[in-house]
Each structure stands twice: as structure tokens, then as C-alpha cells.
Amino acid sequence: GEDVEQSLFLSVREGDSSVINCTYTDSSSTYLYWYKQEPGAGLQLLTYIFSNMDMKQDQRLTVLLNKKDKHLSLRIADTQTGDSAIYFCALLWDAGNMLTFGGGTRLMVKP
Amino acid sequence: EAGVTQSPTHLIKTRGQQATLRCSPISGHTSVYWYQQALGLGLQFLLWYDEGEERNRGNFPPRFSGRQFPNYSSELNVNALELEDSALYLCASSRYTGSQTMNTEAFFGQGTRLTVV
Q1: For an engineered disulfide with A42, which of A38, B17, B58, B108 has Cβ 3.0 to 4.6 Å away?
Q2: Which chain B residues have a beta carbon less than 8 Å from that of A103?
Q3: Does the distance separating the beta carbons of A94 and B99 come in below 8 Å?
Q4: Residues A88, A48: contact at Cβ < 8 Å?
Q5: φ, ψ (nearest 5 deg) of residue B72
């Protein structure tokens, strides 16, 4: 099955850029997603990218996909304290129509 | 427009009991997905329903079951509860266009936190 790995923790200062990384093993995924989870809450879809794209930008968010290295990243520009949360990457398996999630990266933004 | 709603928000059960969790999808969405978020285990896919049918199932024992109603809402039932079933159960919904239902966006509810004591 698919393995999706994320680093556990990232700490940045307010105003800096944050880069959250995700690696995966199976290249057959068609869609790759980033979700945000705040304490005690569900998952909020931030953005997604098709597997035939290399980059997608959406306001402060930039998603980069390196299919050769099976590496997905989420860059948050001008990180704010409100961005503190857990960020999950997720890959869609079309065959089973289910998302496989990474373990999540806890982003802490220091003022 | 209302998002995905789940009830109850918290549920406490004793070992061996049954739990029923409910989910109402976004209007117009026909697919409902259930995920378990247990401490230390991340998010695990449980079930996918579309048009009242179970379309896919994750690697969970048969005591995890569910159904989808004609109005596309869904129930997740967990029988013979075990302590390790304690988790946040998340429901998501999306439109289904035949092949790649999550081809754009799947929206998640706030979850039901199930505690088994």
C-alpha cells in the first residue's frame, strides 16, 4: 500500500515562510491534497494539485510536486500565528477512491 | 451553505457497548466517507458510501459498519466496543462523477470524539 511520510514538527517565526514536506511511495496517485487541522476541529481543505502539475499557487500557499522524487511540499508565505495547526498531506487512490494521509506536521508559529 | 455536520460531538461508551455516529453531507453531495483518527495512528480510511451503497472499505474488522440513507446522510456503527476504538471519527462528503469522486474537494465535518472506558 501507499506510505505517506511527514516530519512531525516545524517551528517558524511570524512573518517567515514555512515549508512543510511530504514524501510518498506509490506514484499512481492522481490528486494530492493539503489539509489543516486546528485543535479539537475537523480537517479543512487548503489546496490540492493534480498529479500532472508541478506547482500551484493560491494566495499565500504554494504547492510544489516533484514526481521524480515523489515529494510534495506546502509553502506558506508570511506565516501568521493563526497558521499554527497540524497540516496533513493526503493522496487519492483512484482505484479505491480513498485518501491516504500522512501522519501530519505540527506547525508552531512564534510571535 | 451548511457544511458537513456530525453528531454527537462527544460520545462516551463502556467496553462492549455499541456506538452510533451520524453524518449529514453537504447538500448535493452523494458520497460520504468515514475516517478514524486515533492517537498515534493518524487518519485511517474506514468506509465509503455512495448512492446508498458501500463502495469501499478500509482495513477494519466487521464490527465497524454503516449505512447511507436515501437523503445521503450516513451512520457509522461500532459494535462490541474496545478501548482502542477511542478516537476522533471524521466524516467527509463530496460529489461523485463516476470515477474520481474526490477529484476536486472532499469536505470534512468536525468529528465525533468517541471515548471507550
Answers
A1: B108
A2: 42
A3: yes
A4: no
A5: 75, 0
A3 at B interface, C-beta within 8 A: no
User: Where does chain B show beta strands of DSSP type E?
Assistant: 5-7, 10-13, 19-24, 31-38, 42-50, 53-57, 64-68, 74-78, 87-94, 107-108, 112-116
**What does the pLDDT read at residue B64?**
98
As a dihedral over the C-alpha atoms of residue B103, residue A34, residue B48, residue B5, rounded to 10 degrees, the angle is -110
Which helix H or strand E contains A57, and what residues bound it? strand A55-58
Distant-in-sequence, close-in-space partners of A15: CB < 8 Å, separation ≥ 6 = A78, A79
Summarised one tens digit per residue, pLDDT across range B50-84 is: 889 998 899 999 999 999 999 999 999 999 999 99
Higher pLDDT, B76 or A53: B76
Question: What is the C-alpha separation between B15 and B115, in angstroms, rounded?
Answer: 10
3-state secondary structure of A82: helix
A103 touches chain B (CB under 8 A): yes
How many angstroms separate the CA of residue A97 from the nearest CA in chain B? Answer: 7
Q: What is the CA A13 to chain-centroid distance, rounded?
A: 19
Is the CB of A31 less than 8 angstroms away from the CB of B102?
yes
Distances in Å between the Cα of B8 and the Cα atoms of A7, A69, B21, B64, B109 are: 32, 42, 7, 17, 11
Burial of A18 from C-beta contacts in 10 A (0-12 / 13-18 / 19+) = buried
Check residue B79 and give its pLDDT.
Answer: 97
Which of B43, B45, B56 has its CB closest to that of A88? B43
Other CB atoms within 10 Å distance of the CB of residue A13: 10
